[in-house]
Amino acid sequence: MREFNLHEELGKLPSCPGVYIMHDACDRILYVGKAKVLKRRVSQYFRGGSKLSTKIRRMVSQVRWFEYIVVSSELESLVLENNLIKENRPPYNTLLKDDKTYPFIKVTTDEAFPRVLLTRKKEKDRARYFGPFTNGVSVNDTIELLRKIYHIRTCNRTLPAADPNLRPCLYHQIGQCDAPCVGGVSEESYNGMVAKVLRFLGGDYSDGIAYLTGRMTDAAAAEEYEKAAEFRDLIRRVKALSQVQHASDTNLDERDIIGMARDGENCVVQVFFERNGNIIGREHFPMTETAETEDSEVLAAFLKQFYEGTPYVPKEILTETEPEDSELLEAWLATKRNQPVHIRVPKIGGKERLVRLAKENARMVITKDLEKVTREDARTKGAMRALGDLLGITALHRVESYDISNISGFHSVGSMVVFVDGRPRKSDYRKFRIKSVDGPDDYASMREVLTRRFTHGLKDLEETGERSGFSVFPDAVLMDGGKGQIEVAEEVLRELGVDIPVCGMVKDDRHRTRGLFCRGTEYALSDVSRGDAGANEEVSALVTRIQDETHRFAIEYHRSLRSKAQTKSVLDDIPGVGPTRRRALQMYYKSMAELRAATEDELAVLPGMNRAAAASVFSFLHAADGADGATGE
After folding, report:
1. What is the extent of the structural domain holding 66?
2. Which backbone phi and psi does 186 adopt, to 5 degrees?
3. Are the beta carbons of 97 and 287 closer than 8 angstroms?
4. CATH code where residue 47 lies
5. Same domain, residue pair 580 and 554
6. Is 65 strand, coil or helix?
7. Rounded CA gap, 629 and 627, in Å?
8. What are the strands of the beta sheet with 128-130, ordered from one edge?
9. Which burial class, exposed, middle or buried, applies to 264 when counting CB atoms under 10 A from its CB (0-12, 13-18, 19+)?
10. Which residues of the chain have pLDDT under 70?
11. Which pLDDT value is given to residue 242?
12. How far apart are alpha carbons 391 and 389 in whole angstroms?
């Protein structure tokens, strides 16, 4: 950690606008904030009498040093703060979980023979943009519909084309482009179709419906019924597109309507997108670190992060609460839009009803999420708590499960799987290649794995004094094997002076786990929570998930080793022994010790072997005996 005198550095803070960045002992960024006066704002965190929330006090207790960036204006500090939050996502900042951008339909009216495209970036050019839309699939469907109706090109060719050998593309062949690239349509006629596209995207579908109706009638009159049916289906798609929800007020200005709902630590912001008097879509956004944060602060954090990530800013934003620094936010949004932007809090009328509707939708999202969280808690944390109650283990949070995998003793491997609060923690999984065991001895292999795992953990704990990595011990060890494996595990832990309960799975006649054997007692899973059927099922399912995941991880590791040239071993280095002869040796000899004990005559009669190959194997193994560490002994 860098040398940092907190009192001295606080005295050096300037009295000007800027952004401050709080770091912990590991240089991790904990919090990013902006200030109109850096000296006054940062000092507030470290004054003993300051009224700070529990969350901020917790953050301050971890701060070991801070840095700051001086800017020329408060608006510039807001922009810089937002960029740093988006880049670093500090744990104590209120964050928008979903920072996706939304698609627009772009009509390239700044070029000859304009195109209609999907884009997620609104540039400062002379093109026309429509949106944003909340569904990229629907945007692509709309573009496809426009191509079929108006035959607008989608290629990126520069027109008028200068290449006399240019040929029209497939879209011209299927009747969805008039091939302006080869002079198939005049620029004047093409621009007339583009004008209709612009009216269509603006909400006027009458031209499109009239055009398609005429084509359908002509096709039916010519008894081209399949083509008439195609036009009929296109008409239905246009009419479906026109049936959008209308806002309750008649003002056709564009706006976003924002409602927020909170329930304890849960917070959701709902946004309705209103364009030309139509609600064209809606989206909800979960927020983090909001439990002890005022509504105005949460809303300000949302507005900054949301409108930084979307290329379109409407001229009006309706909210139920005035956000913190609303005037500064309006100034920042105006720079993004290049026009004034107003944040308003309606109290009566249609706009207030829209905000209330957005808030109600946000509350419905929270209700659904809470139900989902409740179900997930019963499946994970609840099941782990119930399992701990059954086994008499208080505060059962972390469980480690072990397995051994081998084929006839060749390349034995061990695996360690970790479940924390009922969920797999794959970052803590570990793999072990068995080094000291020759042959298929699962007990000895398990002894080696457990010895290595806990010896390593004790060493790390002694060196660092902190619980991290291998030095984080489980609250219980779970073994898939019977009493033999339990005894091995208990003996290893006893020798190392580690007191952790070891539990073994007890199977029924169908090889299903009916209970756990722990410290000399068998506990039936049916006894969970005094016969609560739901808890019984959740605990049984948890134990099964741990068991299946342990097997999967061990087998997957073993398979990956076998796939490397059918198990890399000392046999690969023997002259004259290829994959076929190696497999024959591994099939007939269960261990390297048995293979070394074989005579040349015994080796020579194996499938695929001959006298020369047998002599090569015998000579190589006995020349390397006692010196080759690659045998796995």
Report:
1. 6-93
2. -75, 155
3. yes
4. 3.40.1440.10
5. no
6. strand
7. 6
8. 116-119, 104-107, 128-130
9. exposed
10. 1-3, 48-50, 96-102, 131-138, 161-164, 203, 238-253, 276-278, 280-281, 309-311, 369-370, 372-374, 407-411, 466-468, 528-535, 558, 560-570, 623-633
11. 52
12. 6
Residue where a domain stops, chosen among 376, 406, 433 = 376
Does residue 617 contact residue 577 with C-beta atoms inside 8 Å?
yes
Q: Report how far residue 296's alpha carbon sits from residue 44's, in angstroms, rounded to the nearest whole number.
A: 20
Helix or strand holding residue 232 (H, E): helix 225-242
Question: In this predicted structure, what is the pLDDT of residue 179?
Answer: 84
- Between the alpha carbon of residue 68 and those of residues 35, 36, 42, 62, 301, the distances in Å are 10, 13, 10, 17, 20
End-of-domain residue from the set 376, 405, 426 = 376
| Angstrom distance (rounded) from CA 632 to CA 409 | 10
Count of domains for the chain: 5
- Do 384 and 475 contact (CB within 8 A), yes or no? no
Could you tell me where the DSSP H helices lie in 438-573? 442-464, 483-496, 533-562
Q: Which of 286, 264, 281 is nearest to 365 (CA)?
A: 286
Give the C-alpha separation, 620 to 607, whole Å.
Answer: 19
Contact 439, 409 (CB under 8 A): yes
| Reported pTM | 0.43
Q: Residue 632 gets which letter from DSSP?
A: -
User: Which tokens hold the place of 326?
Assistant: 């609303």
| Residue 104 structure tokens | 């627009």
Alpha-carbon distance of 56 to 53, in angstroms, equals 5
> Greatest CA span in the chain, whole angstroms?
100
Helix (H) or strand (E) holding 476: strand 476-479
DSSP code per residue over 236-304: HHHHHHH-PEEPSS-----EEEEEEEEETTEEEEEEEEEETTEEEEEEEEEEES-TTS-HHHHHHHHHH
- Closest to 481 measured CA to CA, from 547, 417, 555, 407: 547
- 516 and 407 belong to one structural domain: yes
pLDDT tens readout for residues 146-184: 888 888 887 877 777 656 677 777 888 777 788 888 888
Residue 367 lies in a domain: yes
| Cα–Cα distance, 146 to 131 (Å, whole number) | 16
Would you state the pLDDT for residue 628? Answer: 38
Element (H, E) at 339: none
User: Do residue 266 and residue 184 come from a single domain?
Assistant: no
Which residues in 110-217 belong to E strands, given as ranges?
116-119, 128-130
Is there a contact between 310 and 102 (Cβ–Cβ < 8 Å)?
yes
Contact predicate 212/238, CB 8 Å: yes
8 A C-beta contact, residue 397 and residue 555:
no
Q: How far is CA 20 from the centre of its chain?
A: 29
Q: For 286-310, b where at least 16 C-beta lie within 10 A, e where not — what string?
A: bbbbbeebebeebbbbbbbbbbbbb
Nearest to 315 by CA among 221, 252, 402: 252
Neighbours of 129 (CB within 10 A): 17
How many Å apart are CA 429 and CA 208, to the nearest integer? 60
Q: Are residues 272 and 409 in the same domain?
A: no
Q: What angle do CA 506, 509, 511 make, to 5 degrees?
A: 60
